[in-house]
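Lecture 7 notes: from sequence to structure.

We start with a single chain of 214 residues. Read the sequence below before looking at the structure.
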Amino acid sequence: MRIALLIYGRLGYPSTHYDNTLDSIGREHTVDIFMSSDNPPEHFLKDFLAVYKPLRYVSDEIFYTIDLDKYRPRKGYNVNMSNMIRHFINKKRVYTLLEEYIEATGTHYDVVISLRQDLRFSNSFKFDHISENTLCVPGGNDSGDSRNHLNDQVAYGNLTVMKKYMTMFDNLIPILEGDVDLFPGPELLVHANTLFHKMSFVRTDLNYGRVRYE
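Now the structure, written as tokens:
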């Protein structure tokens, strides 16, 4: 299969994660890499480019004008607003790079994977759940109630469903207008995005942990 790997967000010691990530996806597949990280440290960016060799990437600082303060609950969660918004913008930016590449080259992808770079996997991706309008997310990694929270660190599916997942920033206001109690929980918003687009999702047995760096 040909797989588009979309890496977004913070970069942390990229060369220590590359083999683990590619082994988990499967070396038998052709994997094309795209990346969006806002203003990463130069040494991490240099390391990433040397090891991952992305077909396209963006590392510009993110500036945004969206104002979500009116949706803050009176009893808020401990969520960094700026980090959350830049998280969603990075996903949109890296998906845009993929779309531009497909338009320029006509390349077909069987699967699109979105993930953070600072993850370590302990088993392999399974691609037998790929189907129309179905998002695949690892089970057991939600930070809240799995009935209305959805993992926001790893997801995969076909091109159509991943566009809906990766560009949810465009629909933040309509989603919040539908249910202001969703905010400011990123996993609540990711789950709400599946409802907004009438997407299905399946929980997979992909196991991983986030490696935290200072």
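The first strand starts at residue 2 and ends at 8. Keep this in mind for problem set 3.
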